[in-house]
Amino acid sequence: MAYLKRLPFDELKIDRSFVQDAPRNPEDAALVDVMLAVADNLKLQVVAEGIETQEQADFLKAPGTLAYQGYFFGRPEPAYDWLARWLHQNKFS
User: Fold this and answer.
1) Model's pTM, two decimal places?
2) Catalytic residue selected from 49, 52, 55, 77
3) Of 19, 46, 80, 83, whose CB has the highest number of CB atoms within 10 Å?
4) Strand, helix or coil at 28?
5) Beta bridge pairs of residue 11
6) Using CA atoms, how far apart are residues 32 and 38, in angstroms rounded to an integer?
7) CA distance 50 to 43
8) What's 70's DSSP letter?
9) First vs last Cα of the chain: how many Å apart?
């Protein structure tokens, strides 16, 4: 914990091993809650990885900046392909 005071960082990443069971496992839920509280108090952005279900995404809704990563939102793909699809979708919106 002492390193948290000295290291220059602005983002905290929550590993998928915590995210996976947090909605149903009280210990994982408590750890994620603590991570979110620490990030909030230190004004850190948060990235939660490994989100695969709506239940996990709903559990992680938190104040502040929270980025979600996981198959629930889409599979990995080349940036060019994603951007082309996004541009096409937004062209007709």
Assistant:
1) 0.74
2) 49
3) 19
4) helix
5) 45
6) 10
7) 23
8) S
9) 47
* Residue 49 annotated as catalytic: yes
Question: What is the overall mean pLDDT for the chain?
Answer: 87
> Would you list the domain boundaries of the chain?
8-91
pLDDT at res. 85: 87
The torsion region of residue 30 among left (phi > 0), alpha (psi -120 to 50) and beta comes to alpha
Q: How far apart are CA 24 and CA 56, in angstroms?
A: 9
DSSP 8-state secondary structure symbol assigned to residue 53: S
Q: Which of 36, 68, 31 is nearest to 51 (CA)?
A: 68
Q: Are 19 and 60 in contact (CB under 8 A)?
A: yes
C-alpha span between 51 and 15 (Å, rounded): 10
Q: How far is CA 75 from the centre of its chain?
A: 15
pLDDT band of residue 31 (cuts 50, 70, 90) is very high
pLDDT reading at 65 higher than 80: no
